[in-house]
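ok so i was messing around last nite and threw this chain in just to see what happens. nothing serious, just curious
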Amino acid sequence: MPTKARPSRSITSKTPARASESAGHKSRGGKSDSPTYADAPPYKSLLQNLDRVVPHALALVIDTMPGAGLRILQPPGVHSAFFRSYDAKFQLEDKLTWATVIGGKTLVDGGTDAPAFRSSTYFRDFMRANGLERVVTAPVADPVFAGYPGALHVYRTDGQGAFTNAQVAAVTALARRLGDTAVNVRSRRGRDLGQPPRWLHRPPVRQFAFDSRMNSLLWPDSLGTLDERLVGFMREEAARRIKIENDAGDAETQTVGLPDSAGELWRFRCVKYASYPALSNGPVVFFCMQPNFLDWEVVRASDFDADPEMVQLASALPYMRQHFARHPRLDAISKSVGISAFHFHRRFTRLMGITPKYFLLECQIYESRRYLAEGNIDLPQLSRECGFAHQSHFTSRFKQIIGMTPTRWRRYVRQADLAASK
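result:
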């Protein structure tokens, strides 16, 4: 449980200097790929300016994440005890964020469900325990990953009183600006990458959740954007996981590949929570679509400023992107950010929603698909260019991840491109 404190001073503090932010790396194109603040969204200044219009005790940006669940992203300097209590327990109780991102509307003290909100565990044991009495939550469009929206929380103490309509409107406008800024910054970061290829799966929503009755718990129409066969396999996998007893109550996690009607596999981080009160009274199974190579290419450590651990872990991404074809060992990757190999693997997997090994493989597979779709490069040369030991190794790994052989996938993509051009 978080400790009681004066929120305006003890919940946030000055951001400590981080050596990893100034070290930097070079990308394959030779440009700086440093996790610095040079191209970061100006969250800190925007949130600081909010106090001139809407006096408050604390403002947070909370995001839905590919690892399944919620995470405090901004601002820097959130008190560690406050942060840890949210991450360990209260994100499971945070109906506010889910109601805000699913409904796409600003809520004041829980909205129409205000009486239930004020009797909730989140309000009683998280907010009030930290001297916070009132809150406005507003949707923020995709702070880090496309398809993973977030919310701006603005809290007040009892002495600061209720929010006026004008102040609620100001919070809503700021949340919209935060989302627009994050999208624009990602666009600038990826300007040298060109347009995303048509063969990348990019549905507008990339996370889905089911309860024990196989009800879809997130966006009502989100499943309609997916292939019908794929949705059927998602429901089957969710039902199978729901039946598995989990006496410990912890999240069970696994990356799964599920086929669509063409036989191509979609990769999901599949997470079962034995209890997830923010969405359901019983067990919940999440399917979080894995970010693709282009998504990871524009991520920076400064996107996670509220969490020093995430900053440190994300600082390894440039090194991994640069050296994926050389198959860097786990100890070399973890050493690049000053963490033990065991701790790096465990925390990177949980927080990023992908193992370090699979991240490197994702880089290889993306590069190989780009070669396959763009030209007639022969498979032995392609295998060497993308860092596979030999052609048979490439073919087996490609089929394992994509669900098709490289030759079949190239034919499938070209047929789809031909059909789209007619």
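not much to say yet. Residues 293-422 form a domain with the Arc Repressor Mutant, subunit A fold (CATH 1.10.10.60).
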